[in-house]
Amino acid sequence: MSARVITITSGKGGVGKTTATANLSAALADLGYKVVCIDADIGLRNLDVVLGLENRIVYDLVDVVEGRCKLRQAMIRDKRLEELYLIPAAQTRDKNAISPKDMQRVCDELRPDFDFIIIDSPAGIERGFKNAIAPADEVIIVTNPEVSAVRDADRIIGLVEAEQKGPAKLIVNRLNDELIERGDMLAVADVLELLAVDLIGIIPEDQAVLVSTNRGAPIALEPKSRTGQAFRDVAKRLSGQEVAYAETNGTGGLFGRLSKLIRTGGS
What we know:
Layout: E1 4-9, H1 17-30, E2 35-39, H2 47-50, H3 61-65, H4 71-74, E3 76-77, E4 84-87, H5 100-110, E5 116-120, H6 127-133, E6 138-143, H7 147-162, E7 169-175, H8 177-182, H9 188-195, E8 198-204, H10 207-215, H11 226-238, H12 253-263
Parallel strand pairs: 1-5, 1-6, 2-4, 2-5, 6-7, 7-8
Antiparallel strand pairs: 3-4
Helix pairs in contact: 1-11, 5-6
């Protein structure tokens, strides 16, 4: 057994990156894989809350790196899934408390015992981003179908390639078919045309995600949830299965309408 290290990142905050990390980790564990997720957002940890494990933290990632505990002591087993573990971030330190080499060393120690190591990267392009992608075998970028988020995702794609960690894969999160029909949101096809990366998941907009996050219960474990199914489909694709995408408004949208106007001279 030698784990695949997958870093989940984004160009900007608030696009659902931590929620995606929690749900993909849970979905992979539910498929029977042994998974450890690492919160690399030092100072702003949230992955423990999304997984409902905040009250069980004793040690964190910085404690491991600085030698105050062994790696196993910092690992928290999930309450629902025996094959899912969390290594939380430190709340009282900053991103300079660990280095890319530290992250590589931690992941190298974990690799023999797990199938997947999922790293929740801080948003942005600073030290925390470099820490999170240093040990990555694969990088998944989460974006929302809005112009500013896609522009930031494009910059991250370039940085991932510069670090020779590409090609990145893409999750389009919070897709709203009604807004696409009205031309008020980019369609998946628009996003893919702008970013030119491979798609691995489409997650629909769903208020139930907020409820599940507040409850610390990943929606990927809800069998009747359409959004939960979307996360489970991403997990299956990561495991090598071919899974068709649910029908969405993957064409048209704002950029499609603009292209049509240009072709017809604005009439």
